[in-house]
Design goal:
The complex is a heterodimer of chains A (111) and B (116). By secondary structure, chain A is mainly β. In chain A, 0% of the residues lie in helices and 57% in strands. In chain A, the strands form 2 sheets. In chain A, strands 2, 4, 5, 9, 10 and 11 form a 6-stranded mixed beta sheet that branches. A 5-stranded antiparallel beta sheet of chain A has the order 1-3-8-7-6, with no helix packed on it. The chains are: A mainly beta (111), B mainly beta (116). At the A-B interface, β5 and β10 of A face β4, β5 and β10 of B.
Chain lengths: 111, 116
């Protein structure tokens, strides 16, 4: 079945440093989504990428979809304590009927 | 944005009892509901998918007789954990797919189940 892996599993950074998480799928994705889950909370939708090579920005967050549509990345510039949480990528499978989540990257930001 | 209300947020029960978790879409019609399970510091694992008025589709390895899912209307889906055991202790989250919101999912706040 489809597997979606993310690296790294954990990342500790000092506030102000940059952060990147990488997402890799074993199969080609029609699109990819990113979610953020704060500690004790539920996943919150961040963005969806559809086109090969697509790049989207949300303030300090930059999302990229690979040319082969099998990988994606999320880059945060100058992290802040509010960025703390686990970031998941997710891809639809089963003919677009099931959303499979990646393994997640837990980000901790220290002052 | 669309809101999904999940209740209860936390439940503690004795082994052998059944627990029902409700998930309601408050201001939209949920064409599809997804139920996920999440262990501490792990990813979300899809348990089942349900469409309004039809039987749920369970993922491989998920016991349909143990995790009963009912999607009676476009705004309500329930998950009942029957004869719960300590190994069923987990964080259960529902999510809904809505018309007009493309393929974005809206998540409930989750239910932390602890079986003693």
């Amino acid at each position: 079945g489809q597997q979606v892996m993310q690296i790294p599993q954990y990342q500790h950074v000092q506030e102000g440093e940059d952060f990147t998480t990488y997402c890799n799928s074993s199969t080609t994705l029609s699109n990819i989504q990113w979610y953020k889950q704060r500690p004790g909370g539920h996943p919150v939708f961040l963005i969806q990428l559809v086109k090969s090579g697509e790049v989207k920005k949300q303030k300090r967050l930059t999302f990229q979809f690979g040319e082969a549509k099998k990988n994606s990345s999320l880059h945060i510039t100058a992290t802040q304590t509010t960025d703390v949480g686990t970031y998941f990528c997710a891809g639809w499978r089963g003919g677009g009927n099931k959303l499979t989540f990646g393994t997640g990257t837990q980000l901790k930001v220290e002052l | 944005g669309a809101v999904v209300s999940q209740h209860p947020s936390r439940v503690i029960c004795k082994s052998g009892t059944s627990v029902k978790i409700e998930c309601r879409s408050l201001d939209f019609q949920a064409t599809t509901m997804f139920w996920y399970r999440q262990f501490p510091k792990q990813s979300l694992m899809l348990m089942a998918t349900s469409n309004e008025g039809s039987k749920a589709t369970y993922e491989q390895g998920v016991e349909k007789d143990k995790f009963l899912i009912n999607h009676a209307s476009l705004t309500l889906s329930t998950l009942t954990v029957t004869s719960a055991h300590p190994e069923d202790s987990s964080f259960y989250i529902c999510s809904a797919r809505a018309r007009g919101y493309d393929e974005k999912l809206f998540f409930g706040s989750g239910t932390q189940l602890s079986v003693l």
